[in-house]
Amino acid sequence: MTDDVGEVITRVHREEWARVVATLARRLGDLDIAEEMAAEAFATAVERWPVDGVPPNPGAWLTTTAQRKAIDRLRREVKRDEKHREALMLIDIPEPLGAIDDDRLRLVLTCCHPALAMDARIALTLRMVGGLTVPEIARAFLVEESAMGRRITRAKAKIKAAKIPYGVPFREDIPARITGVLAVLYLIFNEGYLASDPGKEPVRGDLTAEAVRLTRLVRALLPADGEVAGLLALMLLTEARRAARVSVRGELVALRDQDRGAWDRVLIAEGHALVRARLASGQAPGRYQILAAINAVHTDARDFRDTDWSQVVALYDQLVRLEPSPIVRLNRAVAVAELDGPEVALAEVDRLPLDGYHAFHATRAELLRRLGRGEESRAEYDRAIGLAGNTAETAYLTRRRDQLAGPQGRSPDLAAGLPVPS
After folding, report:
1. Of 255, 300, 306, which Cα lies nearest the Cα of 275?
2. Are 111 and 125 in contact (CB under 8 A)?
3. What is the pLDDT of residues 147-182, one digit of tens each?
4. CA dist 134 to 142, 175, 267, Å?
5. Where does residue 117 fall: left (phi above 0), alpha (psi -120 to 50 degrees), or beta otherwise?
C-alpha cells in the first residue's frame, strides 16, 4: 500500500466508520452484523484502493460494499436463521414518517435505550458512534481495559437477550434517553479535546466537530431543553480555543499562556449567547449549563489576570452541590488555588481519592511547585507523566518537571501558577 493511500484509508476510517455502521444498523437491525460488515468493507478497501484507486465518494463506496457483503452473508444463512431472513427483508423497506433523519444520531439514540444501564449505554455508544477503542473508553471512565471490554460485551448481549431493536427512534423517544445521549456526546467531545491514546493526534478535531454537529441536531429536536443548550454552549466555548491549545512543538498550552487572539470569536459569541439565554430563563441550571458558565467566565476575560476567579469558584460550588464527584472537586481546587493560594488548594486536593488519575498528580505537582517543595513536586510530575496518555500533555508536564532547578524546586517561572483548564 502506498503511503498516500494508506493515509487516505486512515482518514476515511476516522471520518466514515460511524456513518457506515449507523447506516447498516438501521437497515439490518443488527449491530453485530453492521459492525462486522463495516470492518470487512474497510478490509476490502485496504486490498483494492491501492490497485483501483480511491473512489470519488469513499463513504458511499464503503457503505455499498458493506451492504453487499451483508446481503451475501444473510442469503447464505437465510435458510437456517429466521432472524437473518427478517433482516434481509428490512434492507429496502422505506423509512417510516416521523423518524430522526440522521443515521448517526439515530444510532446514538438506539444505543442509549432505557433498558440498558447508563454506563453500558455510554460505553456502547462511544464504541459504535464515537469510534473510540476499548482502551480509550476505559481511560474516559477511569476503569481497567478488561472491565470496559466486558461492559461493552454485556451491553450487546443485553440487546440481543431483551430483543431491543435497532429500529428507527422517533422524536418522542428522545426525552427518556436524553441524559445518556448528552453524556455520550460530552465524552466524545472530551476525547477529541484531549485524546487519551498516545498513538493519536493530541487534539482530534474530527471528534469535537462530530460531537458539536450531533449536539446541534439534538438541540433542534429539543430547543427548550436547558441542558442541551448548556452542552452545546460548553462545546462551542471549548472548541473556540482549539487553535491555541497546542504549540508548534506539539506541547499543550495552558490557558494562562494561550494566544487569545487565536480564539474563534464567532464560536465564543454563540456560546455566550446560549449561556445568557439560559441565565435569563430563571430555571435552575444543570451540570452542563454550569460548566458552560465557567467557560464563559474564562473566555470573557481579555487576559488571564482578568479572570473572575471568585465567580469561577462560586460556579464550582454550585456544581459540587449538584455533582459532588472527586473530579469536580479537583477542578474546583484549581480555581481555589488562584483565589486563595496553593496551600488552601493542596489541603483540598489531598483529600481526594484520585491516585490513578493523571490530572490529580499534575495538580499536586503544580501546587507543590508553587509552595517551593521541589522534590515532592518532581515525584508528582513523574506520576502524572506515567499516567497521561495525551502526547501534548505529556510534553507539557515533562517540560514543567525538567524546569525544576534542584531539590528546592525553585525556578525562574515558580510563580507561573497552575495549568487551569486548557
Report:
1. 300
2. yes
3. 998 888 888 778 777 766 655 566 677 777 888 889
4. 12, 28, 32
5. beta
